[in-house]
Amino acid sequence: MNYLDIIILVVICFFAVKGLVRGLVNEASSLAGLLAGGWLAFRYHQLLAVPIKSILHLPTHLSSFLAFIIILLLTGVCAHIIGNVITAALRLVMLGSLNRLGGILIGTAEGALLLCMVFSIASSGYMPEQIRGKVRSTESANLFAVTGDKILLMWRNTPASKP
User: Fold this and answer.
1) Residue 129 lies in a domain
2) Number of domains the chain contains
3) Which structural domain range is residue 55 located in?
4) Are 25 and 99 within 8 A, CB to CB?
5) Residues 6+ apart with CB under 8 A from 85
6) How far is CA 20 from CA 50, 110, 146, 154, in A?
């Protein structure tokens, strides 16, 4: 077991506990925010990178990265707000342990999806060979990277809508 395996275990456990604490509704909105944010960021970060580059005078790769993060975070915040509104509306109904169990499952899925995205990016062509090699040589990290690559391939094959 190397440090990447430990990181994977810590992330999965963290998201499972977070799911237990937050419950199904908030975790579902968080997962939806991560999925929607990842898709939106992947599809539209280049459009936002242009004004970021001209305003902040950053290199292209940093502008693209910053645009990706901004879109991902803003979508996540919107999903979080929607989840809190729904949770507040459902507080009158006692979901109890089913809400917590569902939260664990969705929280674990959210952590796994995040790991897929991170390891896919870490093993991409523009990362240093040392990082790519470490991810590809660690079985569990490589599994997340390959899954993340498949998710990104699926997103790439979905045509972007024109504004």
Assistant:
1) no
2) 1
3) 3-114
4) yes
5) none
6) 40, 13, 28, 30
Which sign, positive or negative, has the C-alpha torsion 103, 105, 111, 113?
Answer: negative
Q: How far apart are CA 11 and CA 38, in angstroms?
A: 18
Tokens representing residue 93 in the block:
């109904």
With respect to residue 52, please indicate whether it lies within any of the assigned structural domains.
yes
- Residue 119 resides in a domain: no
Chain segment 126-145, per-residue pLDDT in tens: 778 888 888 888 899 999 99
SS3 of 158, please? Answer: coil
Q: Which residue has 């062509």 as its token pair?
A: 125
Return phi, psi of residue 87, to 5°. -60, -40
**pTM, whole model, 2 decimals?**
0.66
- The answer to whether residue 85 sits within a structural domain is yes
- pLDDT the model gives residue 31: 81
